[in-house]
Design a protein that fits this description.
T6A_TsaE, alpha/beta, Rossmann fold, single chain, ATP-binding, tRNA processing, metal ion binding, 7 strands, globular
């Protein structure tokens, strides 16, 4: 298990994307990522890098208005959810647990922006907290929860 918290400093947009690429190359099937951070913190940029690391060539765009974008090419499928525009009671009616519950789980990587709107969280996930720091770029904290495991030496 990773020793929390794991803090990374990313100096620019390219470093954020590179972190995502390394995650995409190393995340195991069934991984759930909960991406937290203010608007402009780099959540979608990180997911774009994850898609590149998975070998997805389609443009990855924020699903703010569509709620869920699915990309089925690459090493594993990528399910990108953005709950920003929804109220928590509306999120509950979407039955998003199909992306992470054992019996229903889809065999890919699920990245969820604005996870605080979920009615409940998965048992195992990687919490990724992104924050923008004007002088130094972005700060990222990787926090495994439950039985989630990722060898950080593969991405640092």
């Amino acid at each position: 298990m990773i020793k929390p918290p794991n803090l990374l400093r990313l100096r620019n947009f390219e470093a954020s994307k590179a972190l995502g690429q390394k995650l995409g190359q190393n995340l195991p099937k069934g991984s759930v990522l909960l991406l937290q951070g203010d608007l402009g913190a780099g959540k979608t940029t990180l997911v774009q890098g994850i898609g590149e690391g998975l070998g997805i060539t389609d443009p990855i765009v924020s699903p703010t208005f569509t709620l869920i974008n699915e990309y089925h090419e690459g090493r594993l499928p990528l399910y990108h959810l953005d709950l920003y525009r929804l109220e928590p009671d509306a999120v509950a009616k979407l039955y998003l647990e199909q992306y992470w519950e054992e019996e229903e789980r889809l065999p890919g990587i699920t990245a969820i922006e604005w996870p605080e709107k979920l009615p409940y969280l998965p048992l195992n996930y990687l919490e990724i907290q992104l924050s923008y720091i004007e002088e130094t770029g972005r700060q990222v904290i990787l926090q495994p929860v439950g039985d989630f495991y990722l060898d950080l030496s593969t991405i640092s």
